[in-house]
Structures are given as structure tokens and as C-alpha cells.
Amino acid sequence: MNYRLANRNDASELARLHEFSSSMQPGGFMYRLGRRFLTQYYRILIDDGRSIILCAVNDADQLIGFVAGAMEARTRLMALRRGRFRLLLASFPILLRRPKLIHEVYLRQMSGAADEVESGYVVHSGPHEDFWAWWPDQGNGAIELHLKWLSLMRLLGASTIRGEVDKVNTIVYSVHKMLGARTLKEFTTPDGRQRIIMEYQLIP
Prior knowledge:
Blueprint: E1 2-5, H1 11-23, H2 35-48, E2 51-57, E3 63-70, H3 73-82, H4 84-97, H5 100-110, E4 128-134, H6 142-155, E5 160-166, H7 170-178, E6 182-188, E7 194-201
Antiparallel strand pairs: 1-2, 2-3, 3-4, 5-7, 6-7
Helix pairs in contact: 1-2, 2-4
């Protein structure tokens, strides 16, 4: 197994793994917007150049896992806002077939920062972990990948990293706690989901 940063050519494979992993997790949302949406999502983040997406690849350079995040959550959100028309076009066929998703997308667009208000969905400031995924048929390695990403973020200057997890996603929540994350805040999203902000302390 080798590690490298994601490039634009990885976007479709990142989307494929994200779609699969998210569909297996209670409370997953973004996969419901389709693989075309997720491919554009990762292209936007990679093109912006400020997201830190660490890939685990096999000897044939095929993606087997990744962790995505950013040194500054606000810059990631700004890049996605600039690319919102591309994201809308990519998700349009899904929204036509499932119009109820439009309201859920609207709630996310209009919500505040989960680290600043009592509601919201995601953290809007500071180093941030976005998504962590691993193909289950690729054996062990997911934990090692995540630890490598945390080490990389520390080398880049992060002293803490925050991220969110749905409370119903008990397995992911437990793994983060096992790896040393602490619970900062529990909150309710505008659509009624219970979420948790977790934080890794990288520098004592």
C-alpha cells in the first residue's frame, strides 16, 4: 500500500468510493445526489488546491481508501459555493427524479455554521475532516490511513481538527473516539438529525 495526494484524475474514483461508503452509513446524504454530483464535488475541491485529500493506493495505483479535509473549512466551503452551478447541473437528473431532495439541499445551503450556532450541519472554520472511506474488500488499512492523514495535517500546521458525525452512525463515532477524538458539541440539524462535532488534539 502506498500513499499520495489526490489529483484531478482521481475524482471519479473518489466519488465511487464516497457513494458506496456513504450509502452504507446511517444518515448518509450526499450519495443520494448521485455519482455525477460527487465527481464534480471532488473536482472542485482538487482544482481549488486547498483541500488535503490523502489517498491509499495499491501497487497498480488503484484507489483503495482516502481521507479528505482542509486546513481551513471556510476556504473549502467558498470553493464549493463558487462551483455551485456545476454541482447543481450534476445533481439535476437526480433532483428531477427525487424532488423531495430539493428541500434538503435548500436547508443545507441556508444553514449556519454548526460550530457557531445551535443548529447547522458542518463546521465552518479551522482545520476540518470532511470524509473518510475505505473499500471493505481491501483488508486492514483504514485506521493506518487515517493516522497518516492526521500526521500530515499536523505537519502542515494544524493543532486541532474538527469534524462531524451523525449520532446514529455509532460505528464511525466509536472509531473516532478510539483514535482519540473528543466530543465538543451535540446539536440538531434543521432537518431534525442529531449530530456530533468531534475534535482531534494534534499538539498537546
